[in-house]
Design a protein that fits this description.
Elements: E1 12-20, E2 39-45, E3 52-54, H1 60-63, H2 76-92, E4 101-104, H3 112-117, E5 122-125, H4 129-136, E6 142-143, H5 149-157, E7 162-168, H6 177-187, E8 188-199, H7 201-206, E9 219-220, H8 223-232, E10 235-243, E11 249-256, H9 265-277, H10 288-308, E12 313-316, H11 320-329, E13 339-340, E14 358-359, H12 361-367, E15 371-374, H13 380-386, E16 396-399, E17 405-406
Parallel strand pairs: 4-5, 4-7, 5-6, 7-8, 12-13, 12-15, 13-14, 15-16
Antiparallel strand pairs: 1-2, 2-3, 3-9, 8-11, 10-11, 16-17
Helix pairs in contact: 5-6
């Protein structure tokens, strides 16, 4: 396999998590009688441009199907993040009735609903029918297609260029990252701004966030790699912010090459920090496999020990990262009988691979488990607040990443 960006042959492994089905391919009860397709889940490092990337096995049409089950509005914390983003961008870039905001990967309208409420013209681009329908239900216009240069040029030719484009947690999800980035350069107005949010590879390694790795994520991104990819495709980075979301993310601000926005010193500072950490050398990526295996071993040992003690364990959050952990660890319903999730689209279905049933919160209230394993550890504070009533029956919360922890 060659690097998705620079074409260098890939020879260096970052981590091998075995094999797994697509992490958002939740199963119906009827589907339990049939087979699942599993793909190798191996991540490689390009020693030329330092893009960290999965091997090519699953295509985007299979991963982002019409019944895609991830709805961003399920998390109240993420809604608050989206609202704050809209307020900050509106103020910083003087957005108003004369502006156009476009979100790529608009999902269920979780962000554009706040743009619309501010009376700023907007539309979204979203290829999955399930989430696109939910966004339209909020009164948001959606272009239901995959984004790239071809679509961007069509929209620009139709006079639909953007003053601001938002792309939250999607840059890692595209198999052709060059085509995707070039699309933003084509869609922006001359003084327009594109923002991209994605989990920061520096934090992923530091916190052993291996469960962020799944087939939907084709790339694992540093500012070092992103800056090079953008420069090769008509964009230049002019600012960057570090965010607490998803265990540590970056928000990168970009403009057309030679755009009007001044270069922030934060860009050079973060690039220097990545360089000092060794991200442009292979030693930085060594040892991650062993750390991931320790997390796997510890969570399996915890579940076996709980079963032997007669403790009831449940999980919360039928998240993609949870599916990575469960399938890498080989966890099945004998050790973890169910997963609770607030998303109605997931309830009554089964986790891909592990085939653990997904239930609503009432099930947890009736069952009163002794331990609750929070799979989306990045929102553990939100989940613990939501489930605080479980403390009344002496339940304790557990997280597995970056290491097994039982909250008192």
């Amino acid at each position: 396999m060659k690097c998705r960006h620079c074409g260098t042959p890939l020879e260096h492994s970052f981590v091998d998590l075995g094999a797994a089905p697509p992490s958002n391919a939740y199963l119906s009860a009827a589907a339990l009688n049939g087979p699942e397709t599993w793909y190798p889940l191996r991540v490689l490092v390009c020693a030329t441009c330092w893009l960290v990337q999965t091997e090519d096995h699953a295509g985007r049409d299979e991963l982002f199907a019409h019944d895609y089950a991830y709805f961003s509005s399920t998390s109240t914390g993420w809604l608050a993040h989206a609202k704050a983003y809209v307020e900050a961008m509106s103020a910083r870039f003087a957005l108003g009735a004369q502006s156009t905001v476009v979100e790529v990967a608009a999902n269920d309208g979780y962000l554009l609903q706040y743009v619309k409420a501010a009376a700023i013209p907007c539309y979204g681009i979203e290829p999955t029918a399930s989430t696109a329908s939910a966004a339209r239900g909020k009164g948001i216009e959606i272009v239901e297609r995959f984004f790239g240069v071809e679509l961007a040029r069509e929209l620009a030719a139709a006079g639909r260029q953007a003053d601001l484009t938002a792309a939250n947690n999607v840059l890692a999800h595209v198999p052709d990252i060059d085509d995707f980035v070039s699309g933003f350069a084509a869609l922006l107005k001359p003084a327009g701004v594109s923002t991209f949010e994605f989990p920061h590879l520096l934090q992923l390694v530091a916190e052993c966030q291996f469960d962020t790795i799944y087939h939907e994520h084709y790339s694992y991104l540093s500012l070092t790699a992103v800056s090079r990819i953008f420069a090769a495709n008509g964009l230049s980075v002019f600012d960057v912010e570090e965010l607490p979301t998803h265990g540590g993310s970056l928000r990168v601000y970009a403009q057309k090459t030679a755009g009007p926005h001044a270069l922030s010193p934060r860009v050079a500072a973060l690039l220097a920090r990545e360089d000092a950490a060794g991200m442009s050398g292979l030693d930085f990526y060594k040892g991650f496999q062993a750390r991931a295996e320790k997390v796997k071993d510890d969570v399996v040992a915890f579940l076996i020990d709980a079963k032997r003690q007669g403790l009831k364990v449940a999980a919360y959050g039928a998240a993609a990262k949870g599916n990575t952990l469960l399938n890498f660890a080989g966890i099945r319903p004998d050790l973890l009988p169910y997963v609770v999730d607030r998303a109605a689209a997931k309830q009554g279905k089964f986790m891909p691979g592990s085939r653990i049933p997904i239930v609503d919160e009432a099930h947890l209230q009736n069952d009163r488990p002794d331990r609750i394993l929070i799979l989306p550890w990045n929102i553990k504070a939100e989940v613990m607040t939501q489930l605080d009533y479980a403390r009344a029956w002496n339940a304790r919360f557990v997280t597995a990443v970056p290491q097994l922890a039982i909250v008192p």
